[in-house]
Amino acid sequence: MKKKLIAWLLCFMMAGSLTACGGAKEPEQDAGTESTGGEESSSDAIELEMWCWQSSIHEELVAEVEQAIPGVRVNVNKFNSENMEEKVLTALASDSPLPDILVMDDWISNVMPSADKFNNLLDEPFQAEQYKDQYVEWKWNNAMTGDGEKLIAIPIDAGPTAMYYRADLFEAAGLPSEPEEVAELMSDWDGALEAAKQMKEKTGVCMFDFTKNLFLMMISQQEEGLINKNDEFIGDQDHIKEAFYKAAEFSDYVFGMPDMYGTEWGAAMNNGDVAAYCGAVWTLEMLKNTAPDTAGQWRVTRMPGGPANNGGSCMGIPVTSEHPEEAFEVILWLQNAQNQLIALETESLFPTNLEAVDSPEVVKEDEFFGGQKINEIFVDAVKNVPTQYRGLNYTAFRQYFYDELMLVQDAGKNVDEAWEDALKGCEALKATL
């Protein structure tokens, strides 16, 4: 247990936090609960505690639980999105109290070693297998243990990816500007690199934002990532090496910035310093908020190399809950098709319930993107994301590759040396596990 705790703590310290709901928020309350039930609620109602972070759920829906499920009330306890993972893993390691309903981001992989501390939703009385066909398969599988014997959570939202690009800059570079034409030209990363070279030569503008983001997209497109289902590190294999070297090839054609989606990123998008970026659906609102001067000039198309996912949440029930059946009923109600559509409209949480995904309500014209029905791209992507097992310490291992790619990008480090140093870091981490 001591070694696992060390590994978990390494994971928080080393990994950057990206949430499925659009980035970190200012700290919310860090203790205590805020009731979402009405004042006239019955005093003998079953009270369930939920842990989440800002915008991970639509709280007005939570407030309606007592009407939808009479006799049940949910009290929401919100945490800062950057601290949530640490708080959960620390509680699991120390057997500290957990809520009845726990919202988890894609760091659920780091929770899997403690799967026995969650109700197995495949068992009685839940029998969740009957609901599997209602949700996107890969997202459902993300909450399964590596052996496929336990399901510890039900999907909330997903973070399907696409390529966002400036149609006007593509035209200036002599590149096609219509989404289907761009997707054909940049169908793989080799095609994307050639287009990046032309963009730089013709306009002086960098095609993409930064290399580690491209690396993230490349490894997320694959059936296997850094960890296999036996929780063994496989980041030294060819599929990761090829992604690392390919991302490094873009070093001369990225703007370069210290972090994902920060102030510098927004300024580069607004100023026309970057012609495109690959990212999840939840970056839409960030782009609109940080680059308002570019409204109408952006378009969305399929990402080079195929779809991937970045982010997305789920809900589990710790075994310490005294009311697991009621908690499960609440989760199923919150994540039904109608309510996921409401969450999409209010919180930009892209649905995982297939009825919601296929609803005409999802596909609307967006004036910021020139009237394009951009969600058509994300609907296609969310259905075709590969099922990739991430496993324990995924984010910690990934950080070594990130750090070395940034040195290639910003300091001109030799890519061969960077690759070897990334593997040395990963081996050092393995020695602590």
Secondary structure layout plus pairing:
Elements: H1 2-14, E1 34-35, E2 46-53, H2 59-63, H3 65-68, E3 72-79, H4 81-94, E4 101-104, H5 137-141, E5 154-155, E6 157-158, E7 161-166, H6 167-172, H7 179-185, H8 189-203, H9 211-220, H10 238-249, H11 263-271, E8 276-280, H12 284-290, E9 298-301, E10 314-316, H13 324-334, H14 337-347, E11 350-351, H15 354-357, H16 375-384, H17 394-411, H18 415-432
Helix pairs in contact: 1-4, 1-17, 9-10, 11-12, 17-18
- Give the strand order, joined by hyphens, for the main sheet: 1-3-2-4-10-5
The helix fraction, in percent, is: 40-55%
Which class of the largest domain in CATH terms? Alpha Beta
What are the segments in which pLDDT stays under 50 over at least 5 consecutive residues? 1-42
**Which structural class best describes the helix and strand composition?**
alpha+beta
What would the principal axes of the Cα set say about the shape? Answer: globular
CATH topology of the largest domain: D-Maltodextrin-Binding Protein, domain 2
- Based on CA atoms alone, the radius of gyration comes out at 22 Å
**How would a textbook summarize the main sheet?**
6 strands, mixed
What's the rounded overall pLDDT mean? 89
- Supply the number of helical segments: 18
Q: Could you say how many structural domains there are in total?
A: 2
Look at the structure and name the CATH superfamily of the largest domain.
Periplasmic binding protein-like II
State the order of secondary-structure elements, H for helix, E for strand: HEEHHEHEHEEEHHHHHHEHEEHHEHHHH
Count of individual beta strands: 11
User: In the CATH classification, which architecture of the largest domain applies?
Assistant: 3-Layer(aba) Sandwich
Q: N- to C-terminal separation?
A: 10 Å
Strand content: 5-15%
